[in-house]
Amino acid sequence: MSTALHKYDRLEATAIWRESKDAQRRDVIVSIGDATLVISDLRDRALTHWSIPAVRRANPGERPAIFHPDGDADETLEIGQDEVEMIEAIEKLRTAVSRRRPRPGRLRFGIFGVGLAALAALAIFWLPGALREHALRVVPGAIRQDIGASLLKHTTRVTGQACDGHLGEPALRKLEQRLGVKKLMIVTSGVREATVLPGGTVLLNRATVEDFEEPDVVAGFIIAARLATGDPLRQLLENNGMRASFRLLTTGTLPDDLLRSHIENVVLAQPDRPDNEALIAAFKTQKVRISPYAFALDPSGEDTLELIEADPFTVTPEPVLSDGEWVALQGICDA
Q: What does residue 72 show for φ and ψ, rounded to 5 degrees?
């Protein structure tokens, strides 16, 4: 702005000025001062000063050009069409000032836009997680049990009925106690190895007890599944979005269609394998050998060599099941 003013500081032009609507028109000299238009009489006596930022044009694009102060259209300055340089100078200075003038509307729009974007980001990225974590904190164990029981009603469509051979049931209960599991159920199909449900129920594929020679293997599948799943209710809420968390918080229940879809997806999914370090630590805590489980995953032992070499026990310090119990459990689906 100061550069532009300096460029025109010697520019003058003749014009016609009228102080008000009823006043007589006067011939004047217009010059550019320090951020002002100086209007002087023909004897070079200043009559008035107009602030350039406040100058408005009444007839854009027309000649002669008519200007007036902002807010006072009755005071006018008419510059003839032969004073092209002065007209262009005023217009350039007005444009330069306009570009530097604060625009509250734009600022408000910008603030509103930023705020809206922040709210959208919160809704997309923060709110679903916060809602889920709150639900996980406040939902009581009884509701978790109810959700697990409701899920079980839908599992038979995928897994068939749970095996209930009367000779194997005591061994199954013994395995629950040995590993600290709320409830174990052995099913004939659907589950690939082991699946953990809200409320603590673990579903086992019958192959985990029938296809191996020692109970340390099925214990390994249970330990790995529980470690990989963590909180099974968290898995359910993560897989079903904010709607599930909100419904659980407001009603204490989840709709059947959501549970049915979840059980189909989770039961049929390939189970995750926890990282080796966490897996080794979990087996050590449960006092179960890890090498039988590692060989069950890969009979050659090549892919699970780290687990085999890190086995904390040569002999399981506390047997998972006795030989008789293990044989009984292997026949639980044959009754």
A: -140, 85
